[in-house]
Task: structure prediction
Amino acid sequence: MSFHALRAQYASLLKQFIASTKEFEVLTSIPTDPSPPAETLYVLDSSFNPPTLAHLRIASSALQERLQPTSRLLLLLATQNADKPSKPASFEDRLIMMELFAHDLRSHLATTATSTSSGHAHPTTHLPSIDIGVTKKPYFVDKAAAIEAAGTYPTPLEQVHLTGYDTLIRILNPKYYPPEYNLQPLNVLFSRHRLRVRMRPDDEWGSPEDQQEFVAALARGDRENEGGRREWAERIHLVPGKTPGEPPVSSTKAREAVQATSQDLDWLVPDRVRDFMRSEQPYSRDR
Ligand SMILES: Nc1ncnc2c1ncn2[C@@H]1O[C@H](COP(=O)(O)OP(=O)(O)OP(=O)(O)O)[C@@H](O)[C@H]1O
Ligand SMILES: NC(=O)c1ccc[n+]([C@@H]2O[C@H](COP(=O)(O)O)[C@@H](O)[C@H]2O)c1
Result:
């Protein structure tokens, strides 16, 4: 399907979703054929503005821990962000980039499985299916509940939310939980689901040791006065982020690169997303 036709299709699906009372919906799946029922649902929630190689590493490292068709990945676009106002690219273009990203991710999984297995390409039938979904809910605890309530997946189903360290800090910030402004509402999330958190070491977020200490403090009970329970720490799995010296990758950098230094897209976004950004210019002011 041409990008023009795909954009029109997503525009119509989005319009129906926004006008509905639904809080979560899967718009498409890759591949579209039926697949075995999910046993673990990995959820990568992002503004996908655009999807980057950091998002690809977050998802692929989680899926590669147990590469099996009963693992499923949900790429979840939040139409409402907890903090940021909406800005270009359009949601339609982001959904197209999410679909391209899903193909890039499956290609990546198929080829990287080769180096760890017998030297043969990993059959695509063994790769996890990827859903492209939308939610109106900005907070993780509500996203998890909306996914459960929609009835799209078998129940009960453990969700593993894939985030970066900056997002973990925000999930555990009481300012998001009125009217009491304490962390108690998160108990629903941590009693059923998990977080797999990629460290994001830099000047703003500190060293890997500082990031590990944040979870260790929760485990020691240091957040109990704010309603944070020690046992939640067991449901938070911190994994390494970029290695020292590796340049930091972010959607902001990719948006800047497409305007100024387009060759930098090669190390910021996966191939199909890069080609789309170059040909369709979703961040151009004329769009
Ligand atoms: N380089 C990275 N290292 C670790 N986590 C990351 C990285 N990039 C994104 N993430 C995580 O991926 C999730 C979605 O990210 P998000 O859409 O905010 O991307 P971003 O690159 O931080 O965006 P922006 O630059 O537009 O603020 C968040 O949980 C975020 O922490
Ligand atoms: N307390 C929370 O659950 C919480 C706080 C801040 C951001 N978020 C969400 O995290 C995701 C990533 O946010 P940013 O795009 O702002 O990095 C968004 O879906 C945003 O709404 C959730």
In short: Residues 45, 47, 78, 81-84, 138-140, 167, 170-171, 176 surround beta-nicotinamide ribose monophosphate (ligand 2) (CB under 6 Å). The two ends are 20 Å apart (CA to CA). The beta strands are 24-30, 40-46, 71-78, 129-135, 158-164, 194-198, 236-239.
